[in-house]
Amino acid sequence: MPSGLNKRLLPPLLVVLLFIAAMGLTNAHFMADTGGYVVSILSFAGVDEYVGENPTVRDYRAQNSFWDFGHLLWRPLAVLLYKVLLPISSLVVGPHPAANVLFLLMSVNFIAGLVTAILLYALIETLTSRTWLAVFVTGCFILSHGILNFTQTGSSYIAGLGFLTVALYLLLKDKGDLRPRTAILGGLACAAAVTLWVPYVLVVPATIVAPLVLLGWRRAQTRSVIYAGVTFLAATGIAYLAVMLAVGIHTPSDFRDWIAASSHGVQISGLARMLFGFPRSFIHLGNDGVLFKRFLLHDPFNPVSAFDLVRASLWKLALFYLMMGSVVVGLLVSSSRRMLALLLLTTAPLLLFAIRFDGGAIERYLPLYPVIFIALAWNLGSAQVPRLWKIMPILFLSLAVLVNSSVMARPVLNKQNEKTLTRLNGVLPQLKPNSSLVTSHLQDDLVNYHASFPFEPVNLNKTYRVYALVWLNVDQAGRWQQEFANHALKAWAENGDVWLSTRLFSPKPEASWNWVEGDDPRLRWNDLPTFFAKLQTCGATTGGDGFVRLSQSEANIGFLKSQTNQATIHSVSTKDCR
Fold it and tell me: Are 453 and 424 in contact (CB under 8 A)?
C-alpha cells in the first residue's frame, strides 16, 4: 500500500480502535429509560416478556404511549429490528426476548457512536487541516461522560446524535460549495435526529445555517441551505402528522396532552441545576450533585459545608467553565468569530431550555457535543489564538479523559455492584414469583443496579423486581402512599410477597443512601418511617442493610385498602407470616 495512503488511513483507524477500546473497557453506569423501552417494545411486538419490572417505568404500557412525542420513531425502529434481526441477535444473546431487544438497541447506539466519532474527526480535519489535533479532540469526545455512558445503553440519544453529526458533516464538508442534493440529505438527517429525540430540534436551526455562518453567505449556498431547512420541516412534519393521525390526536388539546405525557411528570427546573448539569455531561462527577443539593438545601441529616464542596467537585466545575470561557475568549480575540457565532447559536437555545426543564440530566447537553468539540479544535488549532487560551481546554480535556475512563472502567463498576449483590443475596433465596423489593426512592443503589446492568443474570432472568417508593420531583411524589398501597395489594393478589428495605424504618437517612432532605418540598424523610410504622412486618433478612417482609395480615390489608384511591381494589386474602 502506498505510504501516502497509509498516512491518510492511520488517523481514522486510530479513532476507530480508540472507540472500540473505550467501549470495551468501560461500561454504562446509568441506563436511563432503556428498560422502559424494552417493556414497551415487547408489548407492542406481542411478547409478554420483561427485563424485570423496571423501577423507573412501573407499568410502562399503561403510562406511556408507544408513539411517544419525545422519541417518536425509536420504539418503532426497535420493533422493526427485532422482527427482522431476531434470528441473528439470538445467536449472540440467546432466545430471551428482552435480551434481544436490549442487544439490538445497544448495537444501534454502538454503530451510531462509531459513525459520529469518525465524522467528527473528518469534520475537524477538514475545517482545521490539523490531522493529529483532530485525532486528539475526537479521542476526548469518545471519552467524554455522555458518550461513554449513553453509547452503551438502549436510549435513543446517541442514535439521534449520529444523525445530527451526519447532517453537520454533509452541510460543511464541501467548504462552502454546498449542493442542493447534499443539503436535502442534510435536512433529512436533521429530521431523523429529531424523530429519535425531540430536543435535537433546539440545535437544528444552527446546524442548518452552519455553512452560512462558518463559510460565508453565497447565493448558491444560501439556496442550498433553504433546501435543507424546507426538507427538514417537511420530513419532520410528515412524520409527526402521520403518527398523530394514526393514534387519534386531532385537536390542540390532544397535542398538548401528548407533549406533556412525554415529560413523564418531571417538574425539575432552575439555573443551578443547569450550571451543574452542563459540566456533568462532560466529566463524571459521581454523587457530587447530591452534595450540592445538601449544601443548597441545608440538609439537616447530612450537612455539607462549602469546604466539602470545594474539595469534592467545585474545582472540576471551575475547570470546565474556565475551559468554556477560554474557548469563547480565544475565538473572540482571534479571527475565528464565525466559529464563536456558531457556538453561541447552537448552545443558547438548549441552555435556556435546560434552565426550564431538567437541566441536571447528563443527556440534556448531547446535542451540543459536535459544535463544542469542533470549537475546541478550532481554538486549539488556530495560530491566532494566544497560547494562554489553549492551556485550560487541554487541562480540562486531559482531566476528563482520566476521570471518565477510570471511574467507568468495568472492574471499578463491577466492584461497586458487588456491594449491591451482597445486599440482595440475603433476600433472593426467599423470593417467590411476583414478589418485589421496595426501596425508598429512585436514587437507591439497588434501583440503579437493577436498571443499569440488564445483562446481569440476576436481572435478566427476572429473579427480583424493584419498586421505588418515591419519585422525587415528579407527579408521583404527591401520591406515593396510594401507589404503594395499590402495588402491595396487586402483588399479594398475584401470590407474591412485598419486601421492604430496612432503610424505610430508619429515623435518619445515611449519607450513602443518596437522600437529600428538602429536594422535593412535598415530603420529608420522616414521612417514610412514620407511614411504615403503621404496618406489620416479619421475616427479616440477615445483615444490617436488608429487607423485612410485609405481613399479609388483616390489619395490613385493611390499612392499605384505606390508602388506595382506585375504584377497583384487588381481592386479597390473609396469610400467615411464615
Answer: no
Q: Rounded to an integer, what distance in angstroms lies between the CA atom of residue 12 and that of residue 218?
A: 32
Question: Using CA atoms, how far apart are residues 397 and 56, in angstroms rounded to an integer?
Answer: 32
* Bridging pattern class, strands 498-501 and 436-441: parallel
Which residues, 6+ apart, have CB-to-CB distance to 310 below 8 Å? Answer: none
User: What gap in Å lies between CA 310 and CA 319, rounded to an integer?
Assistant: 12
- How many structural domains comprise the chain? 4
Compute φ and ψ for 32, nearest 5 degrees: 55, -130
Which residue range forms the structural domain that includes residue 186? 177-262
Average pLDDT over the chain, rounded to an integer: 89
Q: What is the C-alpha separation between 472 and 450, in angstroms, rounded?
A: 18
Q: How many residues does the chain have?
A: 578
Contact 408, 417 (CB under 8 A): no
| 3-class secondary structure, 409 | strand
Q: Provide the residue type at 184 as one letter.
A: I
- Domain-embedded: residue 6: no
Same domain flag for 234 and 320: no
Average pLDDT over residues 284-302: 86
Closest to 335 measured CA to CA, from 282, 371, 300, 384? 384
Any domain includes 46:
yes
Q: Looking at the structure, tell me whether residues 241 and 198 fall in a common domain.
A: yes
Please check whether residues 301 and 424 belong to one and the same domain.
Answer: no
* Domain match, 143 and 249 both: no
* 165 assigned to some structural domain: no
Q: Which residues of 315-340 are buried (b: 16+ CB within 10 A; e: fewer)?
A: ebbebbeebbebbbbbbeebebebbb
Domain boundary among 210, 244, 262: 262
DSSP characters over 320-379: HHHHHHHHHHHHHHTT-HHHHHHHHHHHHHHHHHHHHTTTT-GGGGGGGHHHHHHHHHHH
Higher pLDDT, 450 or 140: 140
Rounded distance between C-alpha atoms, residue 19 and residue 16, angstroms: 5
Query: Contact, 72 vs 243, CB < 8 A?
Result: yes
Q: Which three cell numbers stand for residue 129?
A: 487541516
Name the pLDDT band for 61 (thresholds 50, 70, 90): very low
Across 435-446, average pLDDT = 90
Beta sheet of 436-441, edge-to-edge order:
466-470, 436-441, 498-501, 547-550, 537-538
Q: Is residue 342 part of a domain?
A: yes
